[in-house]
Design a protein that fits this description.
7 helices, 39% helix, globular, binds NADP nicotinamide-adenine-dinucleotide phosphate
Length: 251
């Protein structure tokens, strides 16, 4: 553990470690067994958070050591509001509360509007918006119960400008940005912040398989995104709400 004290202009010393620590915070992560979900969970656990992982399938794989005592809730389709409520209630019951929710669950689809299906728009909104909406609504009670509740949504840079073939995906991630902003306004006076990160390409095994000739060093690693999310969950970020922050590495 690293402790560094600094003296502020008013002469008060404070510990940076204490301000950035997530010690004792209970954090639920949706999409918890995916590439970014697991990478983020590991970073948050190393900073002292108690992690609850929510998964859609029942497969958890082997979890890394920092997640050995994670609370696991599987078999949850977050597009179903009742299932989302069940997942959050289970976490609160098992861990004793909830301080933060990280909405990682989501998916990508590439198809042109000309050749693609209208149904794709519905499925993108289900997986990228409804999942975060249902999980957030289910978590509002426990997150508002104490001071300093946090929600971080994982959007995408495409929310800012769609490319060809990205219509349904980009529109769904743009809707997630608006959800982030609206909920931030609603929760301002309850001490709960709501923010989003907007990755471009994450350095995951599927992306490496799909783009074998790319320069992987330019991509953001899941743990690097996890560190930005850790900051947004920390006391240092208490004055940031309603923000959607591009986290794009060198892409
Ligand atoms: N990878 C990238 O380059 C990239 C770029 C920009 C943004 N993002 C965003 O980052 C997030 C994580 O991406 P990733 O690469 O880690 O993807 P991933 O490995 O596929 O993980 C996504 C997770 O979301 C879960 N999920 C999907 N639909 C769900 C539902 N209805 N209910 C509950 N869980 C559901 C999946 O569970 P199952 O596996 O059980 O279906 C999966 O574990 C996503 O929101 C994605 O849009 C990714």
């Amino acid at each position: 553990m690293f402790w560094r004290h600094r003296t502020e202009s008013n002469g008060i010393e404070r510990s940076e470690q204490a301000m950035n620590s997530l010690e004792g915070k209970i954090v639920a992560i949706t999409g918890g067994f995916g590439s970014l979900g697991l990478g983020t969970a590991r970073v948050l656990a190393e900073r002292g958070a108690r992690i609850a992982l929510i998964g859609r399938s029942d497969k958890t794989g082997t979890l890394p050591a920092p997640l050995a005592d994670a609370c696991i809730v599987t078999g949850i389709d977050l597009a179903d509001a009742l299932a989302a409520q069940r997942a959050i209630d289970t976490i609160v019951q098992r861990t004793g509360g909830l301080h933060a929710l990280v909405n990682v669950a989501g998916a990508f689809s590439w198809e042109t509007i000309g050749d693609g299906s209208v149904d794709t728009w519905q499925s993108m909104f289900d997986v990228n918006v409804k999942t975060a909406l249902n999980a957030s609504k289910a978590a509002l009670g426990p997150l508002s119960a104490g001071a300093g509740g946090r929600i971080v949504n994982v959007g995408a840079l495409a929310a800012l400008k769609a490319g060809a073939g990205m219509g349904a995906y980009a529109a769904s991630k743009a809707a997630l940005m608006r959800l982030t902003e609206a909920l931030a306004e609603e929760l301002k006076d309850k001490g709960v912040t709501v923010n989003a990160v907007l990755p471009s390409i994450i350095d995951t095994a599927p992306n490496r398989r799909d783009m074998p000739d790319a320069d992987f060093a330019r991509w953001v690693k899941p743990e690097e995104l996890g560190a930005v999310i850790a900051f947004l969950l920390s006391p240092d970020a208490q004055c940031i709400t309603g923000a959607s922050i591009p986290v794009t590495g060198r892409v």
